[in-house]
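Project channel, design review

CF: Before we commit to the Pholiota conissans constructs, I'd like one complete example in the thread so the newer folks can see what an input/output pair looks like. Taking Thymidylate kinase.
RD: sounds good, go ahead.
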Amino acid sequence: MAHDTQKRRAPFIVIEGLDRSGKTTQTARLHEQLKANGVEASLIKFPDRSTPIGKMIDAYLRSVSELDDRAVHLLFSANRWELASKIESTLLAGTTIICDRYAFSGIAFSAAKVSPAEPSSPLLPFEWCRAPDIGLPAPDLVLFLDITPEQARARGGYGEERYEKEEMQARVRALFGQIGSEMQRGSEGAENMPRWVVVDAGREMEVVERNVWDLVYPLVEEGIAEPVGKLWTR
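CF: and here is what came back for Thymidylate kinase:
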């Protein structure tokens, strides 16, 4: 452990990826492993379907209700803002946060929507999609679990929710790649910028789990000296 741990806060870890990439399994396993190693850790998931806003999102995702695409995007962002202050206070109190999906999913899934009449034309501009999340607490590490849409389709339960269509997932994957490239460029030599790491999620579950642990545990062990950053405010 670092000698100046008292001055350090806990890390904020986000796990992103396409649907059926193993995100939920890996976040749960990482959370359990941290607790087994005596680490105070909290697991959160977005959307948080338990809040009033989250219940509206849940109905939409299950195709029970229809909402305007812009309204849906703003609801997803509002759902994250509902927990923003809690995330910051939890980290400062020394509890590591493991997060299943975050603002990056919100941007990628909304910006991937296209007009039925013009399949090559995005419905919502990328910058418009990013704007509502500017200033959210920034994670210290983002692990993107990368899997091809073809691999995802081969896994059980694919296609049960609104966005689980192969063409959509391919567009989402490309947008995640764009976000990751921007993050990797922006974090070079810059404080308070998330570190973005691509993890091959097409491998055996246990192999991915070890890879995730090796990336996360050093951050947890050392703690973070810098204040909680803000997304896209630099």
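RD: helpful, thanks. The CA atoms of residues 48 and 54 lie 5 Å apart.
CF: The chain has one domain: 5-222.
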